[in-house]
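Table 4 source record.
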Amino acid sequence: STEQLASSYLNLALLQVDTKQLEEASKSYQRSLEYAQHVGNVELIGVIHLNRAELAIKQDDLTTAQTCCSHALKIFGRTGDENGIAETYKFLGCIYARGKKWQQAERVFQRSIQIFEECQNLLNVAEVRYEYGLMCIEQGKKEIAKWELNRALDIFSELQAIFDVQKVKAALEKLSSLGK
């Protein structure tokens, strides 16, 4: 069915992103979006926009990422998908941080953490705290960065997310090498 094609292309795109085939992933997301729009699967359309935003961030295409986040936020707002809204805020935080729009980034990171905590989505709480911590390092806010990264480390450790534990430890080491 057309709906299965939409899901299949989405899964293919996710695999392509994981294997660093970013241009191919972009095309697969586009095909997935076309099929999802054809059948009117609003939830899937929101998920596709969110994943396209993440890909665009990886490609440093912040304009596309922002547009995809806007589409996703509208959809998740209509469908009441709190996790989708929080995930979109996380990506907006990353976009704003890359653009050095610190206050906007902090606001959406904080809102994302709040929603994920309300949804008891600990993995995503940790991911946002990690991203927020990285932004604080870049700003020179070492104490806040240390606090956020340690909260992320606690959660990732509790969840036994080994890869994530390693990346947070690397960020904490970078932070300690910067001195006081």
